[in-house]
Amino acid sequence: MSKNNYIRTNGRAADELRKVSIKAGIIKNADGSAIIEFGKNKIIAAVFGPKEVHPKHMMRNDQAIIKCRYHMMPFSTDTRKNPSLSRREIEISKVIREAIQPAIIMEDYPRTAIEVYIEILQSDGGSRCAAINAASVALADAGINMRDLITACAAGKADGKIILDVDDVEDKTGEADMPLSILPNLGTITLFQLDGCLSEEEFKQALEMATNGCKKLYELQRNALMNKYFNNNKNKGV
Amino acid sequence: MSKNNYIRTNGRAADELRKVSIKAGIIKNADGSAIIEFGKNKIIAAVFGPKEVHPKHMMRNDQAIIKCRYHMMPFSTDTRKNPSLSRREIEISKVIREAIQPAIIMEDYPRTAIEVYIEILQSDGGSRCAAINAASVALADAGINMRDLITACAAGKADGKIILDVDDVEDKTGEADMPLSILPNLGTITLFQLDGCLSEEEFKQALEMATNGCKKLYELQRNALMNKYFNNNKNKGV
Amino acid sequence: MSKNNYIRTNGRAADELRKVSIKAGIIKNADGSAIIEFGKNKIIAAVFGPKEVHPKHMMRNDQAIIKCRYHMMPFSTDTRKNPSLSRREIEISKVIREAIQPAIIMEDYPRTAIEVYIEILQSDGGSRCAAINAASVALADAGINMRDLITACAAGKADGKIILDVDDVEDKTGEADMPLSILPNLGTITLFQLDGCLSEEEFKQALEMATNGCKKLYELQRNALMNKYFNNNKNKGV
Amino acid sequence: MPAVKKIRIIDSMRRTDIENSLKQSKRLDGRAILDYREISIETNVLQKTSGSASVKIGDSEVLAGIKVELGRPFPDTPDKGIIICNAELLPICSAFIEPGPPSEDAIELSRVSDRGIRESGMIDLPQLVIREGEDVFAVFIDIAVINEDGNLFDACSYAIAAALHGATMPTFKIENDKVVILEKVKPLPILSLPISTTFVKIGDKILLDPNAEEQTMCEARLTLVTDDKGNFVSAQKGKAGGFSFKEFNEMIEISKKKGEEIRKKIIKNDK
Amino acid sequence: MPAVKKIRIIDSMRRTDIENSLKQSKRLDGRAILDYREISIETNVLQKTSGSASVKIGDSEVLAGIKVELGRPFPDTPDKGIIICNAELLPICSAFIEPGPPSEDAIELSRVSDRGIRESGMIDLPQLVIREGEDVFAVFIDIAVINEDGNLFDACSYAIAAALHGATMPTFKIENDKVVILEKVKPLPILSLPISTTFVKIGDKILLDPNAEEQTMCEARLTLVTDDKGNFVSAQKGKAGGFSFKEFNEMIEISKKKGEEIRKKIIKNDK
Amino acid sequence: MPAVKKIRIIDSMRRTDIENSLKQSKRLDGRAILDYREISIETNVLQKTSGSASVKIGDSEVLAGIKVELGRPFPDTPDKGIIICNAELLPICSAFIEPGPPSEDAIELSRVSDRGIRESGMIDLPQLVIREGEDVFAVFIDIAVINEDGNLFDACSYAIAAALHGATMPTFKIENDKVVILEKVKPLPILSLPISTTFVKIGDKILLDPNAEEQTMCEARLTLVTDDKGNFVSAQKGKAGGFSFKEFNEMIEISKKKGEEIRKKIIKNDK
Question: What is the CATH number of the domain that holds B68?
Answer without folding.
Answer: 3.30.230.70
